[in-house]
Amino acid sequence: MTLGSEAAPAKSSIINDPQIRAIFYQIVALIAVLWFGWSIWDNTQTNMEARGIASGFGFLESTAGFGIIQTAGLEYSEESTYGQAFLVSLINTIIIAFTGVVAATILGFIMGVARLSHNWLIQKLATAYIETFRNIPLLLQIFFWYHAVLKPLPSPRSIYERGEEIAFGINNRGAYMPDPVFGDGSNLIWIGLIVGIIATIVIDKWAVKRQMNTGEQFPVFYTGLGLIIGLPILGYLMATVFMGSSPVTFEYAVMKGFQLDGGFVIIPEFIALFIALSVYTAAFIAENVRSGIQAVSHGQTEAAHALGLRNGPTLRLIVIPQALRVIIPPLTSQYLNLTKNSSLATAIAYPDLVSVFAGTVLNQTGQAVEIIAITMAVYLSLSVGTSIFMNWYNAKMALVER
Amino acid sequence: MKFKTLLAAGAAIAFSTTMASAATLDDVKAAGKIKCGVSQGLPGFSNPDDEGNWSGLDVAFCRAMAAAVLGDSNAVEFTPLSAKVRFTALQSGEIDVLSRNTTWTATRDNSLGLEFVGVNYYDGQGFMVRKDLGVKSATELSGAAVCTNTGTTTELNVADYFRAQGMDYTVVAFEKADEVVAAYDAGRCDVYTTDRSGLAAQRVKLADPEAHVVLPEIISKEPLGPAVRHGDNQWGDIARWTLNAMINAEELGITSANVDEMKGSDNPSIKRLLGTEGSVGADLGLGADWAYNIVKQVGNYGEVYDATVGPNTPLKLDRGVNALWTQGGILYAAPVR
Ligand SMILES: N[C@@H](CCC(=O)N[C@@H](CS)C(=O)NCC(=O)O)C(=O)O
């Protein structure tokens, strides 16, 4: 009797067993989520079919039929496919995001340090810069720079003669410079560059070890700079001697009927977007830098001085590494912002991913679901990529507890 | 509890398949207004004034639909759309009808989920240049920088044209029409290209309209017309016959001024159109006075043309091919019978 009543709860425990229950609900939830996702997908498909909207990714292989103003060195013509148009616009987005991030970082650090300057004028100028550019909507700044770039520049027809060759020039069709053409033997230059970089890394490792062991320092920076610049030049000279002529030639822009033909062109749309994005983002970075430096207590500097370190090494070895720990996380989000903000390119005809792919291609093919999905995936990957890199850098910079 | 909600949401989505093609007519009647997609400001076609009142040839079409369906030409909500986003807006149900100088093409009609209902302006693509360039023909444009809109047939035609002529060009494509005009005016491009009607309209916005010329070449066919969502035939019929009614009214000599008088006419064609005979209105799911309301409140095609884009407007566009077939043009609407 008592035994039986004890066995009963043991039997019912299969239903009451919290673990089994948990697993059961997990499975049910998973099925529900999968079914939910499938329903959305199936529904979209059915509805699009009912409305006569094409679907699938086959469109990437159809002919695009439109021109793109900046093709980033890729093969692209009106006969190319939508897939190629996607690649070109993706590269254009990466170009503007990367150059923007580099410029915004440099300008932001300068402004952030200037804001803490003891020089009254410099400090006020930096403050004015930050407050102005942080508080004006970015789109407005893009338009401002675009028209500020375009309006004062002359048209090529008004300043050049027909047939004239131009090495460097700026006009309302863009900034022109010679386009380097790498001929036979130019491989030596690249080999020089790669060897230079590797040698610098090796020397750096060696110098650190030597300093650990002997305390002696080695001028890694200048040596590395010398190698990275010197070796390619050496390669160039060797190639010139062997080949009897320079391996690199320059193609100049030539004035044709309406505008300059050839040469290396930076279009005004890029210039305006680049200035706007970097100036705007730098204002935010400057504030991050300022707060980062202020976060390092003055006692650190005093202690370093007491140990006999001069001002330069104090800043480089004591203050900046500690400030960076505070600066890097918000810096990452500024980089992500800049990347995403680069999609405002559409407004001024810079052919980025949103303008060309999520714009023209979407309009031409009507495949909103596929195209927006691809576009979101691209921005997500760019953001995640940036985050991963910055997290790695952050971990490298973080305090190593011993 | 959470699970139940999830289940309910899933069911709602899974079974809503049939809901998606619900009749636009019922939605419009329930809302008491038509949602009409127009341009972001193209004088003569769809343009807001200082108080936000829209007017133009394309706007009149939406007003005519509202008059036919709801008996009130003001029962329209206008949504300004860039060329780029207009089709998505229609596909997603943000608007009920797209009346925005849109070219009827095979791709758009067949794979974008649109249904074109006719042509309210026969046009072609042209080029505008500064007079001081001294260019007389489009064949002299080799190497030119060309400003235009993204998401247009214009962008494609210009590529085709320059390629066929074996000429180089660079295309600078903006999303907003106003930015195209501003960039062209600032000298970014040698050429501004779009539909010729668009050139006439946008020219008004240039700093010095007289300093520019439109070149003689017409490089494409641009039949501009309204479109609705694919798959709702009734709504498509209403849109198609709204346009036909406006054109037929002109042909039959019915105007907003004489439409009341005309209601007493013995001409059977007029009687059928104005609903004193036959059941055309009822067949469309509308009242018998659907066409009467269109003409009374909006006017016939000719009246609207003259008031919006005709020779006495800033656009100064002659009727040309857009005249009735009886007057040497190609405007020819199917009869109401
Ligand atoms: N008809 C062409 C071009 C239509 C188009 O968007 N044209 C421009 C230039 S005229 C326009 O309407 N802009 C006015 C606006 O965007 O507000 C098409 O359907 O693709």
UniProtKB/TrEMBL annotation, chain A:
Q: Name one GO cellular component term.
A: ATP-binding cassette (ABC) transporter complex
Domain ABC transmembrane type-1 span(s) in chain numbering: 90-390
Q: How does it sit in the membrane?
A: Multi-pass membrane protein
Gene3D superfamilies recorded for this chain? MetI-like
Q: Does the keyword Transmembrane helix apply?
A: yes
A single GO BP? amino acid transport
First-listed, main subcellular location of the protein, grouped into a coarse class = membrane
Its localization reads:
Cell inner membrane; Cell membrane
Record carries keyword Transmembrane helix: yes
User: Which Pfam families does its entry note?
Assistant: BPD_transp_1 (PF00528)
Give UniProt keywords alphabetically.
Amino-acid transport, Cell membrane, Membrane, Transmembrane, Transmembrane helix, Transport
List the PROSITE patterns hit by this protein, alphabetically.
ABC_TM1
Top-level taxonomic group: Bacteria
Which GO molecular function, any one, fits this protein according to its record?
transmembrane transporter activity
Membrane-spanning parts: 22-41, 53-73, 85-114, 126-146, 188-208, 220-243, 263-286, 371-393
Give the family per the record.
Belongs to the binding-protein-dependent transport system permease family. HisMQ subfamily.
Q: What is this protein called?
A: General L-amino acid transport system permease protein
Organism lineage string: Bacteria, Pseudomonadati, Pseudomonadota, Alphaproteobacteria, Rhodospirillales
UniProtKB/TrEMBL annotation, chain B:
The cross-references to Pfam families, in alphabetical order and at most eight, read: SBP_bac_3
Keywords tagged on the record: Signal, Transport
Q: Which Gene3D superfamilies match?
A: Periplasmic binding protein-like II
Q: Which GO terms describe its biological process?
A: amino acid transport
Q: Which positions fall inside the Solute-binding protein family 3/N-terminal domain?
A: 33-262
Signal peptide start and end residues = 1-22
Name the protein family.
Answer: Belongs to the bacterial solute-binding protein 3 family.
Q: What is this protein called?
A: General L-amino acid transport system substrate-binding protein
Q: Which organism is it from?
A: Aestuariispira insulae
